[in-house]
Structures are given as C-alpha cells and as structure tokens.
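It is worth pausing here to work through a concrete case rather than discussing structure prediction in the abstract. The textbook approach is simple: state the sequence, then state the predicted structure, then interpret. We follow exactly that order.
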Amino acid sequence: MRAIQLNPNSSEPHHLYAYILTALNRPDEAIKEEKRSMEQDPFARSWALGYQYVFERQYDAAIAEFRARGGGGKQDPAFQFGLAWAYEEKGMYPESALELEKAFHISGDERSAEEARLAFKRDGMRGIREWSLKQNLEKIRAKKYVSALDLATDYARLGRKQETLAALEKAYEERSPWLSLLQKSRGFDFVHSDERYRALVKRIGLPPAY
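Step two, the predicted structure:
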C-alpha cells in the first residue's frame, strides 16, 4: 500500500497487491487491483488478469481474457498454458489438451508436445495427468529439483489423497511461496475436509476458505 501511495501509476505494486488479496480470499478486490496493474502497463504481464480469473474460478472470463490478449499471433506460451488450465478447471478436456500441446510447441519443447498429445489420445485428461507426474518423478530420480508443490498438484489431479497431503507437508518445509495461493486451486478441494489439510492452512497463516 505504501508503494502504491508513493507511485500509484506503477504497475508492479498493484500486481503484487492482487496476489496478497487473492491469498486473503478477497476476490473482487484482487481482480480490481490486477485490472489496475494492466491499465498502468498492459504489456508487462498481459496474461496476468487471465490467471487472476482462474484463481477466482471465473473460467469463462479467464478464457475470454486469454483469447482476447493472446490473439494476433503472439508467441507467448503463458497464454496457451493459461488457457489449458482454465479449460481443464472447467472440464473442457479436449480444448485443454489442445492448448497444452500448443504451449509446448511455442516453448520449443516438441517432445513434450507430442508426449502430451499421445497421453491424451491414450487416456484422456487422466493420461496427461499421469504423464505430468511421471515427468516430475523422472526428474527427481535424475537428481533434478522439482518443487514439492508441483508434485502435490500432480497427485491431487489424480485424486491420490495420501501422496497429496505428504507432498503439501514437504512444500511447507520448503517454504514454497506459492503455498500462499493453496486454497485457490480447485484440485485440492477434495482434501479440504481432512484435518491435516486444515492444520496446514492454519500453519501457513491463511484465512480458511473451506
């Protein structure tokens, strides 16, 4: 707030304030701040408002925003990854898989694009989710760092409760910064009633949203 007072026309403080409001379960204010950030600098992170809509589970608004700003041949995979996420959250799995494949193509990761396509062809969205988990587990076996929160997300998308909770505990130990938005992920809804999850939310210091 002090930064905004000192320079109300700066995009960055409004963007960061939107994250804080999101974590505090103040969605209308968060969206308002992200819009202000975009007004001050529409090119700094032109994908940000779309992601904000996904955080608040306003999927139609997110899809429209990504398509409006990500059109015109822009080669920024953030739009396709965002669209893939919004479509998946809404249950539009073929559309999600297509945007994910596009995102990998734009990123120059042709191998992942093809593997994701084949995974969806084999077993739909569950195939992509299993493929994502396999990729992360292979990185760990190769002694590469993978965020415990990424693993928790993979396990949650597959409905594997015990692994999800264990990975979330590990993410807490790692002080993963994105745990601040833990309650915004629809994938974790299925563990909201578990006391271990509720205790974790309390330890992080978040106002409960379950």
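Step three, interpretation. Residues 118 and 127 are 8 Å apart (CA to CA). The radius of gyration is 18 Å.
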